[in-house]
Specification:
It is a single chain. With 180 residues, the chain is of the alpha+beta class. The protein contains eight helices and five strands, in the order H-H-H-H-E-E-H-E-E-H-E-H-H. The strands form two sheets. It has a three-stranded mixed beta sheet. Helix 6 links the parallel strand 4 and strand 5. Helix 3 packs across helix 4 and helix 5 packs antiparallel against helix 6. The radius of gyration is 20 Å and the shape is elongated. The two termini are 18 Å apart.
Length: 180
């Protein structure tokens, strides 16, 4: 999913990502510092989002507190999380012969204490490290600094399943009740 095409501006998408995943109630100067866009570029995009009825800009303080309207926030969160999920899926497709299964969790509204579980075949340590780095970069693009990801080989998962490991059984039970 290409959010820049949808919203017509990378700066606009960066502002929305920041407000969704990092924090709300920030000033344009704070956005300028964090996002590395110029103040005029940020002001133009914030004004456009404000005119579109997406943002609220509190002008009563000495600085402008920018937030996404509370009624729209769940919709934007869902849209941006879907974009994050699509970015991860694109990465997984590059390793489709090696990643045999994946399970979405906490960051994707399925509570278990883990954000993503990857089951792999035939990955060497260097390949796992590269994959971890690439996944971390995707999360960072969405201002998510911390994500708990479990990498587990197919053999380990099968062994833990045979030994009735609680974590593996919980994952299997949860996913047998819903679809991915």
């Amino acid at each position: 999913m290409n959010l820049e095409k949808l919203f017509g501006s990378k700066a606009k998408v960066d502002i929305l990502k920041y407000l969704i995943f990092r924090r709300q109630g920030v000033s344009m100067r704070a956005l300028e510092t964090e996002l590395w866009w110029t103040f005029p570029a940020i002001k133009k995009q914030v004004d456009g989002l404000n005119e579109a009825g997406i943002l609220e800009v509190d002008k009563e303080n000495t600085w402008r507190a920018i937030t996404i309207k509370p009624t729209l926030l769940p919709f934007f969160k869902e849209l941006f999380f879907e974009s994050l999920r699509q970015s991860l899926l694109s990465l997984f497709e590059q390793h489709q012969n090696q990643i045999t299964q994946y399970f979405w969790w906490d960051k994707f509204w399925k509570p278990i204490g883990i954000d993503l579980i990857l089951i792999y075949d035939q990955l060497q340590k260097e390949e796992i490290d590269t994959l971890k780095h690439n996944i971390s970069e995707i999360f960072r693009e969405f201002w998510i600094e911390s994500a708990s990801i479990v990498f587990m080989s197919s053999e380990e998962r099968d062994k833990r399943y045979r030994l009735a490991d609680r974590f593996v059984l919980q994952v299997m039970r949860f996913y047998n009740n819903i679809t991915k």
